[in-house]
Design goal:
This protein is α/β, with parallel strands linked by helices. The protein has helices at about 60, 75-90, 110-115, 130-135, 150-160, 175-185, 200-205, 220-230, 265-275, 280-305, 320-325, 360-365, 380-385, 385-390; strands spanning about 10-20, 40-45, 50-55, 100-105, 120-125, 140, 160-165, 185-200, 220, 235-240, 250-255, 310-315, 335-340, 355-360, 370, 395, 405. The chain binds ligand DWN, S-adenosyl-L-homocysteine and zinc ion.
Length: about 400
């Protein structure tokens, strides 16, 4: 049995989603025969409250010069990061000539607000194609994987940082202790780490099992984060729950004793006790909810398909790879997936090989039903797709429940 990456307790492996391809492994027909698969099975650590994959493909297979997720693909997220940057500038940057570092800075969706304000900044982004977008926009970025050695190099060149950000990145990195040691090296004595990731409590509550895929090696709880940073003389001082990505948590961390710990932290820890995130029964019931969600979704799609309805997938998200392959959805049920990202268009979805087509094909010839793979952007998408609904089109969503809207 594999051990927890945070506290080394043997993991409670409670479910497998079966053989899975890379969530962002969009491919061409000549690559079908050699497609990579691994077993997507998950376990929980009943000691520190960490939820994790039993096995993760190596990092270069996922994050390289062909990484197809560009953060700027959602307007809603651009607004989110603008507000996030304003909040940091107002509440966390006190020194005269501040310096901020972000890992997983992608196309610069967050750091652009620091670059535009002439604040010293550095992005660390291993996926070269997305990093290049930021570099071309004048955002100071290096294309490498962050770890403790990288932190020492940064300090030599730029000095220590006032703030360190990571949005939807920490949960991608299995070697967390090296990352946290790196933060310790990088941060000024009063510096802060601010990071956010999908929250385990929301995933369990909403059965949003599509947050589980190769890149997401962890789903964090407060208790696991406290445990992790506590081992490195740092502490969780505050949290700010977020609506992004179906329910996320923003964590604010500092060196131990530097700032008071907010009541919000204690309250949320109590809530986690009530959610029983440390009990095996919680994960047993989550497994059953996932199976029920899968069976209801496939029954609905099969029924519509038998009635001769046209169904199209909306947004070729990473998350959809888990849904599509775990539910066994193929071209018999979904005609194609519409997506706005040029490098996904013309390719096929990982595993099930459903064609990914430009957005224009959706709007030119509306289907009867659109299966919303980007339910996390539902507000943004439904607002711009009123015509689809006016012409009789219906949405299918599956989080938190299967619904036709
Ligand atoms: O953690 C991660 C998060 C931050 O982003 C990464 N591991 C990968 C990625 O996850 P995702 O692919 O599930 O992200 P999104 O933002 O839910 O989906 C983005 C995809 O949706 C892009 O391919 C663009 C597409 N999209 C679209 O076709 N029409 C998105 C919107 C808003 C639209 O209107
Ligand atoms: N922060 C952005 C991007 C999230 S996707 C957003 O919230 O939209 C995750 C990003 O983390 C990818 O761009 C990936 O290349 C990057 N990443 C993965 N491992 C990393 C590591 N060890 N150090 C820095 N970035 C990493
Ligand atoms: Zn643990």
């Amino acid at each position: 049995m594999k051990k927890c990456q945070v506290c080394s307790t043997p993991l409670n492996c409670f479910m497998s989603f079966g053989q899975m391809p890379l969530a962002n492994g969009f491919l061409t027909p000549d690559q079908f025969a050699d497609e990579y698969f691994f077993e997507l099975s998950v376990g929980s650590c009943l000691h520190c409250g960490m939820f994790q994959l039993m096995e993760q493909p190596n990092r270069e297979m996922m994050f390289n010069e062909r990484y197809p997720f560009y953060s700027g693909s959602s307007r809603g997220m651009a607004v989110h990061f603008k507000k996030f940057a304003e909040h940091v500038k107002k509440d966390y940057l006190f020194s005269k000539d501040p310096f901020v570092v972000e890992i997983g800075s992608n196309d610069g969706i967050m750091l652009r607000h620091f670059a535009d304000a002439d604040i010293r900044h550095l992005g660390i982004e291993p996926s070269l194609n997305v990093a290049q977008v930021a570099i071309d926009r004048g955002i100071n970025t290096i294309s490498t994987f962050f770890d403790e050695d990288c932190a020492s190099e940064i300090v030599k060149k730029y000095g220590q940082a006032d703030a360190f950000f990571a949005a939807n990145v920490m949960c991608h990195i299995p070697y967390l202790h090296s990352i946290v040691k790196g933060m310790g090296i990088l941060l000024k004595p009063k510096g802060v780490v601010i990071f956010e990731d999908p929250y385990l409590g929301n995933v369990i509550e909403n059965t949003s099992y599509d947050q589980i895929y190769d890149e997401h090696v962890f789903l964090f709880s407060l208790s696991s984060i406290r445990y992790l940073f506590g081992q490195h003389d740092m502490e969780l001082i505050d949290i700010e729950p977020q609506k992004t990505h179906g329910g996320s948590m923003r964590y604010i961390i500092a060196r131990k004793g530097m700032y008071p710990v907010s009541d919000r932290v204690h309250l949320q820890l109590k809530k986690e006790k009530n959610m029983a995130l440390d009990k095996p029964e919680t994960y047993e019931s989550f497994r059953k909810c996932c199976e029920h969600s899968r069976d209801s979704l496939t029954a609905l799609l099969r029924d519509l398909s038998r009635q001769g309805k046209r169904i199209v997938g909306y947004a070729a998200t990473s998350k959809s790879t888990t849904i599509i392959n775990y539910c066994g959805i193929g071209t018999d049920l979904i005609e194609f997936i519409s997506d706005t990202t040029p490098i996904k268009q013309g390719k096929f979805s990982p595993g099930a090989h459903i064609p990914v087509r430009p957005y224009e094909e959706f709007s030119k010839n509306y289907p009867d039903y659109a299966l919303l793979f980007a339910y996390n952007h539902a507000k943004e998408i439904m607002a711009k797709e009123q015509k689809f609904v006016e012409t009789g089109g219906k949405w299918i969503v599956y989080v938190p429940q299967i619904k036709v809207l």
